[in-house]
Amino acid sequence: MANRGWHLFNARKTLQAWLAVYPCVLLFLALFGRQLAHWPLPLRLLVSTAVIVPVVVNITAPLVQRSIDWLLRVSGRPGTGVTAEESKEERP
User: Fold this and answer.
1) What pLDDT sits at residue 75?
2) What's the burial of 38, exposed, middle or buried (CB within 10 Å: 0-12/13-18/19+)?
3) Measured between alpha carbons, how far is 65 from 19 in angstroms, rounded to an integer?
4) d(CA 21, CA 15)
5) What is the rounded CA–CA span in Å between residue 16 and residue 53?
6) What is the pLDDT along the chain (92 residues), one digit of tens a residue?
């Protein structure tokens, strides 16, 4: 049963990451996609990641984290679905 909690934790973190990254990539491509289309792929990736990664790390990821935590608090559901005792048992 403890393993189930770990999978739910991983699924939640994956969803949080996707919710933080997707809007940033979409907005960047919508704003600058045409201007960068003629650039070589490595240069496009360099510029896009140089802009997107700091935005995700400093703005959207914390915002998504706070939003999900708030939703879980409001709904009365626990954050990870794993109790403190279960998390201790999983550690080597």
Assistant:
1) 83
2) exposed
3) 10
4) 10
5) 15
6) 456 666 767 888 899 999 999 999 999 999 999 999 999 999 999 999 999 999 999 999 999 999 988 988 888 766 555 444 444 444 45
3-state secondary structure string across the chain: CHHHHHHHHHHHHHHHHHHHHHHHHHHHHHHHHHHHCCCCHHHHHHHHHHHHHHHHHHHHHHHHHHHHHHHHHHHCCCCCCCCHHHHHHHCC
Q: Considering only CA atoms, which of 55, 36, 52 is closest in space to residue 44?
A: 36
